[in-house]
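Self-study notes.
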Amino acid sequence: MARTLDEGELIEHWLLIGKEPDLLTGRTGPSKLALALWLKFFAQHGRFPEGRSELPDEAVAFVAGQVKVSAAELGLFDWEGRTAERHRAQIRAFLDFSECTVADAERLTHWLATQVCERERQADRVRQALLQSFTSPSPAR
């Protein structure tokens, strides 16, 4: 059974802040709600949700209230169509996120092999170093 989000978690992770509401300008209904939810999910997890089941009910209701769209309308959103593709591209651009290229992966592999794996062999610590390299300036970038 999924854990219930409390008010503090909703505010911390699901409140639209700063220029985030501007991204929703011109959108209505399911498209507006999905874009807002995907934005907040991506900011937390670094990926898009694979389906409605990954979005906590409390978060859907909380965001729906902010964007003034019924939470039930999320069921009308096409998760695979052109609008969904556009949403993903807009969120990546808004968050200044670029997809990894082959060259990026090769640089990162080299950095992991020469800088991290020479000092550390425990998989969880190597993973932690890898994830930190994505959020802070490092030689891997």
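Second protein, same conventions, sequence then structure:
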Amino acid sequence: MTARNENLLTALKSALGDKLVSADAALGEVTVVVGAEELLAACALLRDDAALRFEQLIDLCGVDYSEYREGEWQGRRFAVVYHLLSVSLNQRLRLRVFAPDDDFPVLASVVGVWSSANWYEREAFDLYGIMFTGHPDLRRLLTDYGFIGHPFRKDFPLSGNVEMRYDPEQKRVIYQPVTIEPRVITPRIVREENYADSEGFRKG
């Protein structure tokens, strides 16, 4: 671990105290986990503490852990990961928060802390179905208003639930049940003997 990451971990533990569920450094990145009930208070500290000063939220994404580690994962299903940047102190942080309810994942919106969270939270809602209480305009961002389900969830069907087509009789685009039969195509690898000649060039 670098001295910079050691100092950051010390500052995080000092500032967040018992709000921290875990804090560690791996592969040059520092990651902290806080409880959902502590999210807003922790985010305000991460932004305002003099030793942290994470002024920018540069990314936010949802995660579905339902098939993580081939089903051996025992924790909560949905999490939101926040990537933070301190321009003034030249340091980065990954913050992870798990939604307490797997059936109806809800977390507090951090738009009041970092305004850049607005569209990121809408994207996580659209693709994962994670709700953000206090968001000023939580609605779909990438899929259509009539879209069924949340396409980044692990249990979402590969072919989707509905398809769109233009109906010449009605003279408009309509939705209908998917007509593609679900299937998984696995690429076939063919290895022939003497595939290349002695000089390494492909034959034929």
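Instructor comment on the second fold: The radius of gyration is 23 Å.
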